[in-house]
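[scheduler] slot 2 assigned
[scheduler] job type: sequence-to-structure, two independent chains
[scheduler] chain ordering preserved from manifest
[runner] begin chain α
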Amino acid sequence: MEAAALSFSGQRTFFLGPNGQGKTNLLEAIAFAGVLRSFRFGGTESLVMHDASDASLFHRFQGDDGNESEVLLRLDSKGAKHVELDGERIARLADYMGRFPSVALSSRDFRLVRDGPGERRRWLDVTLSTSSSTYFETLRNYHRCLRERNALLKRGGGDAELDAFEASLVPAAVELTRLRREALPVLSGLLAERYASISSSREEASLGYKPDLEYMDQATVADRYLAGRERDRVLGSTRRGPHRDDFRFLLDSRDARHLASEGQQRGLVLALRLAEFSFLRNICGTVPVLLVDDALGELDSERKANFHKLLPDDAQVFATGTVHPGESGDPEAWDVFRVNAGTFELS
């Protein structure tokens, strides 16, 4: 189906249908208005239909005060974004981020605990970019400088050229590390509270930051890049910096990757998303939309029940699944849409 127009006014909406019918695509479209990226893919090129030149999304949001906002998003097949808010073109995306926050929980999130650091950094960057225009701009600046340095390394640039690029890269790296170091303890505290509720306080959860550049000022970071130039030239890439950062999930101060059971790992990820919800709500001053993509079916009955208890009453929740929520023992009252081949019918 090439186009769909849907309206939702209830607090709890459930999309029911077999896999591959378009349920996740719809959640993705809702979330895109908030973070301007897919919660499944790194880029946006894959969101444009094959053989099409572009795709468009139009959202109308109604705030708690009754005021409405309209968002028009256009994506081209090369990944470029065009954003309009109430008919006005958004020139700086940093000015837009955080206006319509959302939190998306999907079954792929359960890999956050045990897989490599790339997905964890991606989650952290999206969360902090949504909550802070400063973080968003610092992240963009760092990765721009990083790409430029890597391109220079690949073509064998000289020391004078690298000095010039590193003059911008170094302060961005230091600032990015500082912002992450400030935010992670706050997120860790929220995670601990939510995990205690989900797991009935069987163990204590936290997050441990692992920066690639530990407690370094600009002069020290500049020396590190200088000392590593020759090896970076051989590899054609920059080995050190915030793009190599990671954080760990901890249970009772021990690395959960190696010690946590499947149930504990799932509980940690649920707690992380609920912590993200509270974090964005506190900073953005807006209740985020909560999206749950076929994830709760993998939980045991106790954790599922505890998750439902933690759902904020004033949060608008959109969820997907292959089993009707009434049949699965879900205590929530849902507006149920049946989904088939990209069509949505309220049942």
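[runner] end chain α
[runner] begin chain β
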Amino acid sequence: MTNQYRTHAGIWALAVTAFAIGIAEFIVVGILPAIADHLGISLARAGSLVGLYAMSLAIGTPLLVLGLARFPRKPVLLVLISVFLVGNLLSALSDNYALLLAGRIVTAVAHGSFFAIGATVAARLAPTGQASRAIAVMFAGLTLAMVIGVPLGTLIGNGFGWQLPFFAVALLAALAWLATALWMPSLPAQPAGHAVTQLAALLQPPILAMLSITVLGFGASFAAFTFITPILTDITGFSIRNASLLLVVFGAATLVGNLAGGRWAASVGWPVALRRMLTGLSLTLVVLALFIPYRAPMVVLLFVWGLLAFGMSPSFQAGMLATAERWTPGALDFASALNISAFNLGITLGEMLGSAMVARGSMALTPWAGVGLALVAQLPLAWLARRSFRAKRAPAASG
């Protein structure tokens, strides 16, 4: 057999859009001080642009995905990209906090719905058994944004005005729309249960367990990462230019971690991959907290941190799809949307913990909040892994 796994062009279209979305989501982290200075608000309030973005995404995504469940996938994706483009233009044209927040909310809702539906589309376009790798390719666009888009946008935003990166993202969104129009095949909506049936997924303990794993595990990084620029400049002692360049180190690690994480999950299974990466993340954040004033260790730790934090993303999403296929097969898109919400509830949780620490002058302690979240995430993961193992054995025993 010489057949090799070839990535469908439609998955690359998803990755192009994810690249634009990744810049839009994380660019605020790189230009946070510039936004705070220009709008005349505190750093902690500017940080809320990260948390409220995530909260809006978490609330809006499941509702919008539920409403779009019965429409063909390609037109839905094109509409969501268009809304994303408009949201970034609104952000770019903002001259006050309220207008910027409105633009971020519009962007967030389109962002979350795109990833929720895009993950199921990527899985449908992949060969059997390769869903996690296809999802990883889509998420690679998000992590590539961390390597190229966010550092470049940070340099531009800090040097020439924080609005410019948002204009650039709007242009990228237009290119993503074109790629989707050209490369994405026509796909009908998958059979879905009635709204009540889909909402019932929220009552399933395995679904709730998987959501908690994603919230805690992904959120573990964001107590510190939301404030990574002031941490690098005010605590570690890097210049703003070098801090921007160090985001390239973190971003490169997220790209490598995402692709490796997708392959690892496909090889050993998402529960094992998550357990090991959560353990590694906990240890990394402990070391980060201890060595946060030192420049050389920080460079190495940024790479390891990014590798683990985003290496878990394919496992989180593949885990939710596998869990939904077993316990709520009529609500796959909705379960995917819930997990995208969980990613962003995790960001919100991390940002809130980090902002509370920053407001009390304890920015150097923010990694410890992440340690606690990553350790707690192991509990529902262990329970769900045992539950899934028993469910797999039951049909075999009865047969």
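[runner] end chain β
[qc] chain β: The mean pLDDT is 87.
[scheduler] slot 2 released
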